[in-house]
Amino acid sequence: MNIFIDESGSFVNATTPESWNSIAAYLSPESDRKRLSEIVARLKRSVGVPTNVEVKLKNISESQYFEFLGWIGQLDGALYAVATDAGLNQQREIAEHQRVQAERIIEHKDKMHHQLAREGLQALSEQVAAFAPQLYIQLNCQVNLIATIILNGVLYFVQRRPKSLGRFRWRIDQKNSIQTEYEKAFVTVTPAFLQTISLRKPMPMLIGADYSAFSRFDYSEEDRPTYLRETYGIGINSDKPATNIGMLMREDLDFVDSKHDKGVQVADLLASGVRRCLRQQFGDNELAARLLGRLMVQNYRDHPPIQFLGFSRSENRASEGVVRLSRIMERNSRAMLVR
User: Fold this and answer.
1) Cβ neighbours around 166 below 10 Å, total
2) Residue 83 is inside which H or E element, if any?
3) Contact between residue 77 and residue 293 where contact means Cβ atoms under 8 Å apart
4) What is the bridge-based pairing of β-strands 169-173 and 253-256?
5) Distance (Å, rounded) from C-alpha 104 to C-alpha 12?
6) Are 264 and 4 in contact (CB under 8 A)?
7) Per-residue pLDDT of the chain (339 residues; tens, 9 = 90+)
8) What end-to-end distance do the CA atoms of the chain give, in Å?
9) Which candidate in 140, 164, 212, 241 could, as Cys together with 29 as Cys, close a disulfide (CB 3.0–4.6 Å)?
10) Burial (0-12, 13-18, 19+ Cβ within 10 Å), 68
11) Max alpha carbon distance in the chain (Å)?
């Protein structure tokens, strides 16, 4: 499974609502690689740019972009997205959220048996605490996006392309030619955060589905982690498979230059389209929502297929326009279960 990730927006705090930022992941089975590449080339021909030049949403007319979404909709890939309104994220509450998260990382540090483990937790906590606010928000959006991919994406594709789950190739847009401290921290922080999320929301498994390819990410009985029980007193049901999230994430993860990766270019166009739609800046936002929704997968009841993430405890809510557009995406999203 090829997973292409890119974001749209700076995630910097804004003074007015409707300042949406988004991160998108496009999950594309390896069997779609050639057709996906052909669609990107077709789009560039229609826009009139060379195949070795990256095309951005700002360079495409609305009709060309909608046509592109239609082409992508004919493939087996699926779009997952997380969005946050920088105009509703209050700096004081972001700082408090960040402080609490950093403290939770080392909450049980003294229970760890090994000094290196304690030192690792301390370093991880300090990394999280040192992020600039906009990077902390972006990190949370990416972690929640990847959690959704693991919780929902695996369930979706195990019914349709089960063999594609034998390997996960994560390709994430890099912002510099040299790996940034954020990217290094992301590789360290994300599996730890995902492990915490998995305890609260275990991955659903469909009875009778073919998990044979995905099972290579299961811990063996000998390697199954015992620290949760020994250190925290948390029991894990040994009758069910336990996914090695670190292996799933780190086995084939790379930050790449989008100029040289067509899949990441697709993720960039989708993230930009989600952001523009939520900002209601298309000429026909409802059509944009329908076309984007057709690429998304149905979420749990009463939850839109796009995940909205906020850091404020205030009564601020998304506008009626955004709610209407998210409902259009929901009505047009793909069914989770195969009938």
Assistant:
1) 14
2) strand 78-85
3) no
4) parallel
5) 24
6) yes
7) 999 999 999 999 888 889 999 999 999 999 999 999 999 999 999 999 998 999 999 999 999 999 999 999 999 999 999 999 998 888 888 999 899 888 887 876 776 667 776 787 788 888 888 888 998 999 999 999 999 999 999 999 999 999 999 999 999 999 775 567 778 878 888 887 887 777 778 888 999 999 999 999 998 766 665 555 554 444 555 566 788 888 999 999 999 999 999 999 999 999 999 999 999 999 999 999 999 999 999 998 778 999 999 887 655 578 899 999 999 999 999 999 998
8) 23
9) 164
10) buried
11) 61
Burial class (CB in 10 A: 0-12, 13-18, 19+), 233: exposed
pTM above 0.85, yes or no: yes
**Token duo for residue 100:** 């609490």
Rounded distance, CA 98 to CA 267, Å?
28
Contact in structure between 307 and 81 (CB atoms under 8 Å): yes
The span from the CA of 82 to the CA of 162, in Å, is 25
For residues 171 and 4, the answer to whether their CB atoms sit within 8 Å is: yes
Please, which residues bridge with residue 255 across strands? 172
Say how many CA atoms lie within 13 Å of 156 toward its Cβ.
Answer: 26
DSSP letter at 228? I
| Alpha-carbon dihedral 8, 13, 19, 22, rounded to 10 degrees | 30
251 token code pair: 């086995």
Q: Mutual orientation of helices 33-47 and 262-278 as an angle, nearest 10°?
A: 60
